[in-house]
Amino acid sequence: MKRVDKLRKYNNYTVMLLIFGVFVSAFYCLNHMYALESKIKKLVLLDQSLFNTSSLLDEETNTFKVEKVSKLDLEREIYNFQKLEDNYIAFTTTDAENNDVICTLNLSKDTLKEDGSEVVPSDKNKLGIDNLNVLYKVKGSSIGKYNVSEDGKKIIFFDPESSLFDNGNVYLYDVDGKKLTQMQEKSYINLIIGNNKYIGINDEYLFVKNLDSGKIDNLKSTKDIISSNSNTSSKNKGKYNLLLSANKEYACLIALIPDGDEVLSHIYQINLENEEISEEAIQGSINKVVNLLDGNFIFSGQIEGENGIFIYNIQTKNYKNLVQGNISDVDITDDNKRISYIDTNNDGSSKIHVGSFDKDKIMSDTVIYNDPKYGLHTMWSNDGNKLYYFSFYDSGTRIYGFSLNG
After folding, report:
1. Does residue 91 lie in a domain region?
2. What residue intervals traverse the membrane (predicted)?
């Protein structure tokens, strides 16, 4: 009898140990599954109050995810953006006395809130003009098209309505020395190259000037650029865009020239080493232009009645449509791996797109923000991991920073 009782006792212990073993095994199994799920998918919550209109898309995307949204409010509207080195941008705005100023701002600093749950509550938290780095101020005047050197040390601009200077003059400003120099030549658009020379165009020539020696090389007659029998001033006849290739081997002048009821975009490619010029004309208007590392460029506009984003091959002088739509802005990362653009519908609503860029095609096109209001344009950070979006907001400018993965 005692032997039977002992066996029963041992059997009870055995059952308890088995139950405990099953419980422990199940616990570790569930823990492993949870950890695996955490590695596969990370849920990020964004505060919808960061946005004036609709929130980010609810639909899932396989490639691009918005991990974080930051924002910065500036108390004034800003224009004429230029991307500088180290995540600095240059832009024009006005101060409290309505003087035009050229400023710089470091977008990578902590002035952009990285906490998605925090909302700037009032205008007193807007970044004022006193908090910006002012490069140059024109008292009681206006600044026309300007260009900043890569090192941020020189600014060249056309002053079209100055009450202090004669109309049509060009000025070079030394940021460190705070010295303003009036150029002898006139120019309606200017592009600083290599920090020591610039390309300009006036009623007579497309030219290059060495800022150290003062030597001017006239590259092409403006009459040949506009029309061989035109007596109309070039500043009123055409609209110009100057850009430097990513490899810095050539500059491009893009001139939008009316031709009867049509508009032709003339592309002049200037070899900066031998100063030879090649020319091509495209039926339509070229708007925002962005350089590619292979020497080609992409642009938004309307070509032969088709709206969208196009890629232009410098060597073959052919173009290809990448995206159809009313594209108001386009930008690409420095490594040419990511692209962004703003697509506006006929009803005025817009969407911000990001995608992967591969030579001559856009893949994994993803909408990251629906219906942004009063948008100006997008700009990628230097490392390509953040996209900045600029919009007008309550007589000021709001800058969103979208941190992306994928």
Report:
1. no
2. 12-34
